[in-house]
Amino acid sequence: MTDPFEDQKARASAWFHSLRDEIVTAFESLEQTHITGPLADRPAGRFDVSPTRRDTGGGGVMSVMRGGRVFEKVGVNISTVYGELSPAAQSAMAARRGLPGMADDPRFWASGISLVAHMQNPHTPAVHMNTRMFWTPHGWWFGGGSDLNPCLPYDEDTAGFHATLKAHCDRHDPKYYPRFKAWADTYFYVPHRGRARGVGGIFFDDHSTGDWEADFAFTQDVGRAFLPAFLPLAERRRTTPWSEADRGAQLAHRGLYAEYNLLYDRGTKFGLETGHDPDAVLMSMPPLATWP
Amino acid sequence: MTDPFEDQKARASAWFHSLRDEIVTAFESLEQTHITGPLADRPAGRFDVSPTRRDTGGGGVMSVMRGGRVFEKVGVNISTVYGELSPAAQSAMAARRGLPGMADDPRFWASGISLVAHMQNPHTPAVHMNTRMFWTPHGWWFGGGSDLNPCLPYDEDTAGFHATLKAHCDRHDPKYYPRFKAWADTYFYVPHRGRARGVGGIFFDDHSTGDWEADFAFTQDVGRAFLPAFLPLAERRRTTPWSEADRGAQLAHRGLYAEYNLLYDRGTKFGLETGHDPDAVLMSMPPLATWP
What we know:
Chains A, B: Keywords: Heme biosynthesis, Oxidoreductase, Porphyrin biosynthesis. 2 copies of one chain form a homodimer. Chain A has 292 residues and is an alpha+beta fold. The first copy, chain A, has a single domain (6-284), classed as Coproporphyrinogen III oxidase, aerobic (oxygen-dependent coproporphyrinogen oxidase). The first copy, chain A, is 42% helix and 27% strand. Chain A is built from 8 helices and 10 strands. Chain A has helices at 6-32, 87-97, 155-170, 176-187, 212-237, 244-263, 266-273, 278-281, and strands at residues 48-53, 58-66, 71-84, 107-119, 126-136, 139-149, 189-190, 195-196, 201-207, 288-290. In chain A, strand 4 (107-119) and strand 5 form a beta hairpin. Chain A is globular and about 60 Å long. The model of chain A has no long low-confidence stretch (mean pLDDT 95).
């Protein structure tokens, strides 16, 4: 049976792969160029790369760097998975998107990149970026986002991050940035704490205008925005000394991040429910976190 | 309007209160009698006690000890809450118990005690105990359980813990222990990791035989079993020295505990969804946890 979407799927998964390569290279370079300031005397961090497997179809590549000069732990996962959605996943999707026919033909295909970085320096925010393409016989869509999670926020860093995301969104539609920024404010909100998990960014899901090329190009640009949004602030903060109190604030903020990730994050739920490698799905968890 | 259940509610909440007093006293005594071995030179831990509030009805008492000789962090919460169940909580309950009329009259009342202890010594298991009474105009029930979470398991400790739970269950019905042990094995299973979170114990919910006195007496005995089940093993292990590798195993095991707690625990979900004080609901979180 020919798959009329074969070409789009191949292009999407190849793009996520190349974006991964670009980010991994840039992060290793950030490690190597950190030659003065805190932790500059330890070996530059390198990514460990390992394949991941989903028992019922597909897999990916997990790249993790631990204990570097700049990154305490950063994971960059790419995966392409397929098979049939479980009844639970079908109803979650149907509730959100109203896809008739899902129960009769529950096939799906999904490919994406997902990144979470927990930094050594409490002055540098933790950061998350994720983009993905989802396909079913009943429709396709893109989703993703990027958000900044400082425990010690700097207005300059927040403004720069948002400005870069906005510039990349504006190439596609001036309505995208305000809409997807507002969506991030809603999505990255921690209801039981009554607060945002960080200083926001953008979030979009179920993005399907009918024009696959345009939506793919937008999704690519969200990925392309990541390094220019994050690297300048990471370079600016990596030499700032920190106190024990700063470290304490960072570990407590990671507790909040872990709560969000396990209680509310869609990608985590989807990954665990669909039987993807738990170590890959939970690569986003902080290396060390505290609770009061 | 007289509440025909007023007396039972008062007796249940008074019982949870007195059980809390008994446990808090025993735990402070365990601190004071730890006079040789690791950390015996630090001040004996004491509980900090504070009231907790649920904005839409009720509250409780949170008792937390941190950084003691034996306990790294232990929380003992009691609460009595009431009001109306949210539509989400109604449907969760209806799905589980099939309570017709919940939507027409969504009032509820719940009272209980909940305890989680994270120990200093990696040779002593983390432990959880919880019992509660739930009332709606459409029915009442009890729930609870207790389970042991060692990172370095000792067969002797596991056997003693289970034997004490069994003896207390057997006073009521010889079928209870095997049934509720099996339920704990199912309930405290971490599906995404394909493993149990610990070495089990007992778990029961929706327990309502029709005889309130009998079900309350059973629930009291589950609470009464806790100290004789846990104290002997805590006394046995508290002087065992530990290595850095033991501490590493403990922190990693706490990561698993945190995952379970945020992803699957019913009490956590119920507490957060019904708007109880998040610091009280999440008092069960480990003081420090790691992820690989």
